[in-house]
Amino acid sequence: VDPEVCTYSPRPKRYDWCFIGHLGHEREAFLAKLEAAIPNCFHGTAFGKEADEIYNQSTLAVNLSRGPDINMRVFEAQATSALLITNRLDNGEDELFERLPLFVSTDDCIAQMRMWLMQPELTYELARAQALDMAAHTYDVRARTLLAAIGWPGF
How far apart are CA 77 and CA 59, in angstroms? Predict the structure, then answer.
């Protein structure tokens, strides 16, 4: 995560939830079901500071990975004041993140979204904890860890 771009900046919430990313048939169908259940949302593409602004104006950020990858959205959204929820990948997310709500289906996602939206204090606390956790996942920290792992001089 780039802490210059992805920031924890609580703002008045404009959206109940957001999804920032490229759409495709599977994602469009998924997001349509979420929007039918919880219509106050943003979904579409945004980059850099614009994405950061949208995340910080949203109570929840939703991720749906296309494959078994932990994409950058998982890191970027957690660095903001939105609470990220994402689909379970079984690809290391449990080892990387202690405070990441995971869903297994569209219905499970909607149920979790409703639960988090009904508990604003708890949602705020968990979102703040996610943002603090992202200090261990900056590009600088990741690069230093990699250099130390390969025995680069000075690390």
Answer: 11
